[in-house]
Each structure stands twice: as structure tokens, then as C-alpha cells.
Amino acid sequence: MQYVPHMSQPRSTARTTAQRHRVRQDLATAAMHLFSTKGYEATTVDEIAAAAGVARRTFFRHFRSKEEAIFPDHDDTLVRVQAVLDSAEPGEHPLDTVCRGITEVLRMYAESPEVSVERYRLTREVPALREHEIASVARYDRLFTRYLLGHFDEAAHRAGDDDPLLAEVAASAVVAAHNHVLRRWLRAGGKGDVEAQLNHAFDVIRETFGTGMGVGRATPATAAPVPQEDRPGAVVVAVARTDASPTEVLRAVEKALESGLD
Amino acid sequence: MQYVPHMSQPRSTARTTAQRHRVRQDLATAAMHLFSTKGYEATTVDEIAAAAGVARRTFFRHFRSKEEAIFPDHDDTLVRVQAVLDSAEPGEHPLDTVCRGITEVLRMYAESPEVSVERYRLTREVPALREHEIASVARYDRLFTRYLLGHFDEAAHRAGDDDPLLAEVAASAVVAAHNHVLRRWLRAGGKGDVEAQLNHAFDVIRETFGTGMGVGRATPATAAPVPQEDRPGAVVVAVARTDASPTEVLRAVEKALESGLD
DNA sequence: TTACGAGTGACACCCCGTGCCATAACCTGG
DNA sequence: CCAGGTTATGGCACGGGGTGTCACTCGTAA
Fold first, then answer.
1. Among A31, B4, B21, B63, which is disulfide-ready with A69 (CB 3.0 to 4.6 Å)?
2. Is the same domain home to A88 and A200?
């Protein structure tokens, strides 16, 4: 992969807006190809630009940094996730909205499994790429945390003063579930229905602490009904301290079942 | 803050191993001071080294990068956290062990509140520092995830095939709780008992989904007893799908209470 | 005293990222 | 048809982070 002297360039020196995406795409694929073949550190931006047939300066007009060339879609995905959050119907549980948001991220990876798998191989062995990806998913986390901070008060206002903590924990839990499913899928070579696996992980999240959000800190024995939303199979979560009497617990659960199932 | 020509340096050119920590400390404080006064990107490594009375090359012998000079203790804290995990007694719940691990991180911040607060101000407005700190806490997250992966099987082996997911979610939840408490403390100016606040957050974590780990996926109606461990106030979590009959749910809860409270 | 290693200073080098300006295309309105 | 602005680019220079290398100076052990 030698330097191209770049004399008498075949491509015209100015391009229209429509062609700009093509240049960006060429740069991304050239970067991905060079990173895979000769390593990340060993590849210079000059080589990437030369392989794409543009100048070095043009590269930095399309990507803020060398690392960003390998994750070209995170910015777009971020605004799409934000759009998902903004356009959520008021009736939807905030946790479900966030789950739909992170699904958007997973779809980005699932859209081109081969590239994602190869990129995963690179991120594992190059610390710079690893940190860059961590910072990228942290941006989604921040989005979700802020969203839940503004929407948990309505759904679980009676939970007390621990709403912001639960919002942060819930957001990170959803992100962690996504990371787990994604990495398992990538390690398996990008085969199988990731989105289904993610939905299964969401079930676990919801069962573990998701819909139990309204329960809050149970002392000594409480149980909360769950909004039905015409979705069969929703779960009822009851939390009780073990120092509560069994009959106390049963009464609380019974009461929750009554108000939630009519 | 001019360049020091560095002729006739007052400090001897070679130092013993004991003095090496002093040089590192001088570099860290000089970096922190310069970053605070004239900004992070406006400060060059040359200036930091000159302020500490050493050569530029020496700076990079103590810190891998410019950002690391502002977080000098993360590496040491990481091995201390690992030591906490390694020396945990077999009887302790893995989640509690991880909580003690992240407490070690919080103590590092709490050790010098003024520095932490000022550093927090910098990390908020400098993206490079922000990403570096995110990557740092991600390393703790990885530690915890791997630890829980190897210790959840024993405690909740009956939960099925979702152990790795729960391990990852639990680790990120603990880290998220730490981040939340830490940031709130930093925003408040570093006043108050952070460690107590963190322990309170741990209670919420444990009540929310910590000890409910053994419940697993309940279909259509199950409830699991929780290991008591001589800790009063532990919670029992019951999960049931709403398509289960109320009596079915009550029977399951009752059974769990019997086996868990004797 | 001599030999060795650890820590350092000094210099050179690569290359990422940015500011700046000239240029070539593509729309506009006149 | 043409003068104007806009957009994307190429080329150049520069600052600065991070690394390799060599010589030097200590302290220490033999």
C-alpha cells in the first residue's frame, strides 16, 4: 500500500454537496481497510486520504479525529436516538422509551455485521479505539440519564428522593444490557438475530428492576401495580423486607394485584 | 509563566528511587496548577516540566499522556480495587464485595476534596479530560464485571443462562451509583460525608435488584427465597406475570417467605 | 576502585490536528 | 450572459503531543 503521488488527480477538485457523502464514505472504507491490513497506529492519515483520492486536509473536514473514521455513524445515531426520545408518546413507560433508543444503536451495528465484527477486533487490541468507543457509548448513556431524570418523576413520584439515582442506574443498566448483547453477538461473528436477543435482555432488565421502579424503597412491605398498557405478560414486582410479617407481605401483594388487574 | 531556560538547574540531574515519587508529585501539582490558571489546552507539557524543574522528556517517563497528569491516582487505585476483590472472604455476597471495591475509588476522590472539585470543573469543560475520566471508570467497570462473572454462578446458579448479563448490569449499576453520588458531592463543593451517601445508594441498589438476583425469570408466577446471611432487613423480591392468577402469585410468594424466613 | 543499573537531560523525529488562503465548481439574481 | 456569493477542496505552514535514542550522573554492590 504505497503512497500515491497524486499528480493529475482523476477526481475533480471541487464537489457538490451530494458528492460529499461519497467522499466521506470513501474515506471511511479506506480507513477501515488500511486499519485492518496494516494496523491502526501504523496507518497515517496521509495514507487514508491518498487511498481515498483526496488531500490530507480534506480528511479532517469529514472526521474530527483519526479514530472517528472507524466509527462514522455514531453522530448520526446519536441524533436519531434523541429523536426517538423526543417523539415518544406520553403513555409509554420511560424505561421502554430508552430501550427503543438503545435499539437504534444496536441496529447501526447490525446493519453491516462484517464491518462491525472487524471493527470489534480492532477496538479490542487498540487502546485508542477502545477508549473512543467507550466515550461514544457514554454519550448515549448521558442522553438516557437526562431523559429518565425528566420522566421518572411523573411515573414514580412517590418513590422519594432517590429518583435521580435510579434514573442514572436504570440508564446505565440499559446501556450495559446493550453492550452485553452486542459484544456476545460480535464475538459470535455477527450471526443470529441480535435485536431479538436485546429484547430478551430487556425483559430481564424490566423483570429485575424496571417496572419495580414504582415500588421504591419498601418498608416494611409494599407492592405496586403496574400500568398495563394493553401489553399482556407484564410483570408485577413486589418488594418486601424480610422483617415484615408474611401476612403483611401477602396483603400488600394482594392489594397490588387487585388494583392492577381489573 | 515564562519558559525557564533551565541553565544551572538547582536540582541534581540524577535522583534516587525514593525521590522519584517526589518528582511525580511535583509534576502533578504543577500540571494541576497550570491547568486551573491558564486552561488545559493552553498549557503545554514543556511548561509543566519547567514548572516542576525537570525536562520535558521526564514528564512522559512519569505519565503516559498529558491527561494522565490530572488523574495521577487511577492506576494505583485500580490495583487496590483489584486487591479488595482478591482478598474478599468467600462468605461475602459478590455484590457487596464490588461495593467495597468502588468505595476504594470514592475514597481516592474524597481524600483531597479541593483538588477533586477543581478537577471536576476542568473535566466538565475539557472534552479530552472528560473522555479520559470516562475511560478510567470504565476500567473499574471491567474489573467488577469480570469479578461478578466468576462469582455469580455460585450464589445464583439456578437463575438460568442470564448470569453474564446480570453480572454486567450489576457492575454497571454499582459504578453508576458511585458516579451519581460522587458528582452530586462534587457539585456541592466537596462538603459532607460522601461515603455515607454512597452506602445509602448501595442500599437502594441492593433493594432494587441486588439480592433479588436469585429470582431469575419468573413465568408465570415464582418467588425465590433470599439468602439471609445474618443481615437483617434483606428484601424478598417476587416477580410474577400479570397473566398469572392472583392466587397463583400469592401461593408462590407465600412459599418463598416460608423457605426464606425460617 | 570499578562495574552496573536507575533516573535523567538533550536532541531528533513522526504525525495528529488546525488556521489560513487560493482555487474551482455550483447555484443565485440581474 | 455575467457578477456575486457559497461550498468543498488542495496546499502550506505551524504548534504540540508522544517516542526513540544516546550520553551523563548519580547511587550501590562487588
1. A31
2. yes
On whether both B57 and B95 belong to a single domain, the answer is: no
**Assigned C-alpha cell, A254:** 394482594
> Do B26 and B152 sit in the same domain of this protein?
no
Contacts of A136 (CB under 8 A, 6+ apart): A71, A74
Please give the pLDDT value at position A204. Answer: 87
Q: List pLDDT tens digits, range A92-132.
A: 999 999 999 999 999 999 999 999 999 999 999 999 999 99
8 Å CB contact of B226 and A237: no
- Give the Å distances, CA to CA, from B247 to A246, A249, A253, A260, B215: 15, 14, 11, 14, 19
Rounded CA-CA distance B120/B35 in Å is 12
Q: Which residue has the cell 466538565?
A: B124
Query: Is the pLDDT at A212 greater than 50, yes or no?
Result: no
Do A97 and A231 contact (CB within 8 A), yes or no?
A: no
Is there a domain that residue B2 lies in?
no
Residue A79 and residue A54 share a domain:
no
Which range of residues forms the domain containing residue A104? 73-215+232-262
Q: Do A107 and A199 touch, CB atoms closer than 8 A?
A: no
Compute how many other C-beta atoms are within 10 angstroms of the C-beta atom of residue A173.
28
Question: A235 — phi, psi (to 5°)?
Answer: -110, 150
State the cell numbers at B176: 453508576
* Alpha-carbon gap: A11 to the closest alpha carbon of chain B (Å): 36
Residue B3 located in a structural domain: no
pLDDT digits (tens, 9 = 90+) for B71-83: 999 999 999 999 9
CA distance B134 to chain A (A): 6
Say whether both A237 and A194 belong to one domain.
yes
- Considering any atom of strand C, list protein residues whose CB lies within 7 Å: A 12-14, 16, 43-46, 56-57, 60, 64-67; B 6, 9, 11, 13-17, 19-20, 23, 53-58, 61-62
Residues of B in contact with A176 (CB under 8 A): 168-169, 171-173
* Chain A, window 222-251: residues with a beta carbon less than 8 angstroms from a chain B beta carbon: 226, 228, 232-243, 246, 249-250
Helix (H, G, I), strand (E, B) or coil at B139: helix
